[in-house]
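Response to reviewer comment R2.3. The reviewers asked that we include at least one raw input/output pair. We reproduce the pair for S8 family serine peptidase here without editing.
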Amino acid sequence: MTDQSAATWISAAAQQQRQQQGLPARQLSDAPVHQAYLDSLRRSGAQITAVSKWLNAAAVEATSCQAELLRQKCFVQQVTPITGYFQAASRSKKKDEVLPVLDQINAQKFREKGLTGKGVKVGVIDVGFYEAPQQASLKRLFNQDHVRGYRDFVNPAAGKPYTYKESFLDNHGTQVLECLAGYNPKHNLQVGLATEADYYLARTDHGSRENRMEEEHFVRALEWLDSLGVRLVNSSLGYGTGFDKAEENYKPEQMDGSSFIARAAQMAVQEKGMCLVISAGNDGSKKNWQFLNTPADAAGVLTVGATDYSSWIKQGYSGIGPGFLPFVKPDLACFSAFGTSFTAPVVTGLAACLLQVNPHLSAQQLTQILKRSGHLYPHGNNYIGYGVPNAEKALQLARDSTIVFPAPTIMKASGNQFSFKRPKDWKVVGQGGIVLFRKKSATQVITQQRLSVRTTILLLKRMTGETHTTIQFGENVLEVVWE
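Raw output as returned:
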């Protein structure tokens, strides 16, 4: 695992603070960025390199972990990537704030309906949970005794699970837990969906070294969770390359569900009735390895990739499903600016809420409901799976699995050209953009293309080897089959 610094735009100084200076609205853009905001950024560990009064923003150098923590601060409204940078707009004091990804999956009403994952046991297998009880968004979770168990499989004799730190990534599990269960009552900020589930935490990975022994820790953690009756497990861990000993590295063709850890994950699902939600991994932009990592390749586990926020296109880093798998991987995807580690817990939190509604759902039923709620379903691909899940659709299916939603339109294209006029009621702004997934089979993507949201007439010329094209107009989908 690596965590390198990157230039980051943090849009700042709340407009409310500027208005308190008595400035007319037209002069707000000329007001200086509020000093208290800049001081807050510095205290959070960000190194400010530039300040823009027009953008009401500061440019900083921050690691991905620091940027993720900044995103969760009360003064940050949202975080979105902009040409390789991050942008975090200031957070105004609105009622019941949620993070952008929760807005993307349409989960705003879950809190209104009292869906918090209450009574559901959730296991989290990760690197470490350093200082988790001290995080503002997790204090209530610990104070109300929702963290029911902890076990360190890396260093069992360490003791003091939340104050002992062995590596620079020992707070990774803490951040994942925040994405699962975080809620800051002071700012009415909901970070995760399953704020009242019961959690069992397992540390199986050492952040400063990588070896196959960690896969054994993972399997032992699964067995421990199974013995406690845990039926929903989240893990943002994955293994492919980067082992300390090069001979331990996997080869791409081994991402076929045959690894030790993948076989255990598949057994957990098929024989033990556990629903495993696993991040796809962040190797999608690597030259020699673009695939998801094991155990995300296991049949039956719910693998989650990453999209951007505005168009729902695959993030460059998000791991791709190998073409030789007989099933679609990843299964779903949603927004994260900093890695698939923070998409899996979003879907796990959604799953916990569905189990609260219907505790009798099997692992297979729960997984299928989540996939059916994806905006591309049933036309999944190896970039973003069945797409971005829709929480309200999933809720309806959890209550009545016989519901049938309108299927995407399938059209046949003769020759090498295809044209289509977008219906006026197919909205795209705020609901995903216009995206083409150009494929060499029903599921395997050749390339993805993002078009202007103003596009009304689409003219396609068939690519070499292209057999299918998925056209996404927001949440409306058209599947083109080339003849």
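Confidence is low (pLDDT under 50) at residues 1-7, 12-23, 79-96. Residues 416 and 462 are 5 Å apart (CA to CA). Further pairs are available on request from the corresponding author.
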